[in-house]
Amino acid sequence: MSAPAGRTTAGGRGAAAAAGAAGAAGAAGAELADAADLAGLAAYASRRLGVVLDPATARADESGWDFRVVHVRGTDGTWWILRRPRRPEASARLAFEGAVLAAVRDRIPVPVPYWRLHTPDLVAYPRLPGAPAGTEDPETLVYGWSVDPLAHPAHYLEPLARALVAVHTTPPEGSPVLAARAQADPGSVRARIADRLARARAELPLPAAGLRRWQAWLDDGRLWPDRLTLVHGDVHPGHTLVVRPPSGPPALSGLLDWANADVGDPAADFVDMLYAGGTAVLDRLLAAYRSAGGEVRAGLREHILARASFLWVHVALRGLDTGRPAWTETALRRMAR
Question: pTM of the entire structure?
């Protein structure tokens, strides 16, 4: 995590230290900008981490929406993850993501990334064991599962549910960064979605049936949360890792990519699993969540289904914002079904 800024006085030692830190950050940023190739990035990370990374092992993963990822092995055999933000707004979210990871690390029943390097331009941490439970096709945005999520719920969906309960019940008061965000009005969730729908109506050819459904959802106050919780914000098969033991079924071994973590609507953490696995996966996950002590309020399932439908509005706008027309076209086709 980034260290909190200390108090300074103009012209004093604090101001000089701040100026020196800014200069060092600028120099580091310039050095990283020069490390455009994988070997250069591995060399830069080696110097910052104090470990020796083998550039010959570096391989890029460009599947992430917000970050470019490089896998590279240290000479001691440890694999490392190097994450670089694609856009300034992704970089700006790193401080909050780091605060969330620190808050949940000792509460959550599955491993999460443990950052050993955190700058505005680069995050590095030892790779967690396991492989993704599924991957998303970058063109069709359809998930292919590497495991059957319903075959052995005690090894996958149930520990995932316990992890979500741990996240959703994490008190924000322990971190100033989280506590500041926790002051948000629960009504802000509905207001943000209403704003996105208004923008989508102005910029996209939305289907009439979808518009009616989304407006009815927005107007139904009983479906919306009356309190906000800490949320992961992007729980899907690609962000859940599983290990395959020599005997026995695959088991959940980690929860990745907390870039969209927020203080918000806990229903958000069920939407992508519904999209990837259908209502059977959602219902099993909700049952496990309730058994683990999570609050399954009246109307939550209906709310999740509506949020999942609205997901395609989000994807369409994301395509416009990031210059990926294929995403927008795919989303519009899905809305029209």
Answer: 0.85
